[in-house]
Design goal:
two-stranded parallel sheet, 23 helices, seven-stranded mixed beta sheet, Beta Polymerase, domain 2
Amino acid sequence: MTFALPFSKLFGFIRSLLQPADTMMLVGGVVRDLMLNREISDIDIVLQLPETKIKPIARKIANQFHGAMYSLDDERLTFRILAKDAVGHPWTIDLAIQRGQTLAEDLALRDFTINAMALDITVAGRQVLIDPFHGVSDLNTGLLRPVSDTSLTDDPIRVLRSIRFLLEFGFKTATNFESFMQAAVPGLAQVSGERFRDELFRLLARPFACEGIHRISELGALNIVSPYLGFTWDAHIEKTLSILDHLTTILEKGLDEKQFSLPFMIDIEQPVFDYLAGPISSGRSRLALLKFACMLGAVDAMFTGVSYFAFSQHEQNFLKTLVKHITIFKRGLASVSGNPRKNTYRFYKATGMAGPAICILGGCKLLAEGDGVERRWYEQIRQLLASYFYRYEVEISPAPLLDGNAVMTAFGLQPGRQIGILLQMLEEAQAAGEVSTTDEAIAFLAKQVALGEDEW
């Protein structure tokens, strides 16, 4: 069995760093995905060589491919390299020392038989498959089987991973697999928040997240983290998550493949999907964060949750803004009055980049409610989204007609907080369509100055 290997430059460079007695193996998911002819961007490599050599090799790989390198596990000498190929597609390369005296001992420590295969590529042009646990057979028959009876209890995060694999590959489970999962669930309490987060988000990024979360909930695994989420699985959350899964399907297949358009996204689908697909940081998309947010409970619990899961600061700010405003979003739609453009400006002034996410999640929640939702609310959401994606520089962040120096000169004011307040009031008036020229701006501010700061 011979595969057309991607990343030939990477493998060639690593070979140039090895000594004759050293070996290089592709292991785990990359071998599985080669057999399934799936796109590959994550590469696990095991090297058999003196321990002192692996870190310098990892550093040289990162330098050669203009990437970043950091340690995943100092004890096990595992390093991650983040780089990009010639056209900008990201690579994730995990480089590790072989565990155990033999490769079979190393593979025996892995999760499932379909991930416990290795491909020896030490010599260019020669590939040797090592499959001590019959992973090829399990792939061919569609069977998810742990490498050993203790594979899941040895590392309980594999419970979440197993559910993702079952849904992603459509496999059936081996005998006693369900009991193995149940036995491993209590151990999730000892898993770090970062590892739980990463495995959870791999599931949330897929179009079957709703079914996956449902299965995890049935196992009781969500109870482990519920104190950090204020989370209770119910029919409304399930329906909301299923709608977000539909959006994931559209993102994967493209807009031409969509089966229907959500009522609050008509004629603005493409910019909405571009926004949802974009990451905030750490490679997690806004859509995956939306799915996570729809499971969050009370705001107070959410603040604990974002800390437990060790999100980046940008993600924390996004989630906190999202959860804070989604709780009052429907009420705001029902009670809206006055100048619509002024309302739009104030909404985005308060929510920033999270504003469209609040609109999208709010719309999905309304759809999940079904009957009793006023159709005008969907149109209000659509207009909010259209303002952000099509009229941003007019209705949300218009170019200033005056700067601070011009305001101070025109009205004989000294530097201070009132200048910032006046400029913000002017920006709001511009966004609302009340002011459009410099003369109108001066006249508008003249009225505010005459009123005095106490009236602002």
